[in-house]
Design brief:
alpha+beta; two-stranded antiparallel ribbon; elongated; binds zinc ion
Length: 68
């Protein structure tokens, strides 16, 4: 599983995005309403923050899996 579920804060539609496309400070365009969703640690958008945390956790787990 390499995709992160993102919920758009504008239209509340959920979609999946590659975790590698969600580093801090970047944004993705919602496929449903074409609004940019910015991924910043201090974002006021709770959904964007959740996706950023999920992407970070995924990368940590992927790294742990490589080590073991
Ligand atoms: Zn949207």
């Amino acid at each position: 599983m390499s995709k992160i579920k993102i919920v758009c804060g504008k239209c509340t539609k959920a979609f999946n995005e590659q975790h590698s496309k969600i580093p801090g400070g970047l944004s993705v365009i919602c496929p449903a309403c074409a609004q940019p969703i910015v991924f910043e640690g201090n974002s006021e958008d709770l959904n964007a923050r959740k996706a950023l945390i999920a992407a970070r956790r995924f990368r940590l787990e992927a790294r742990a899996a490589q080590i073991s």
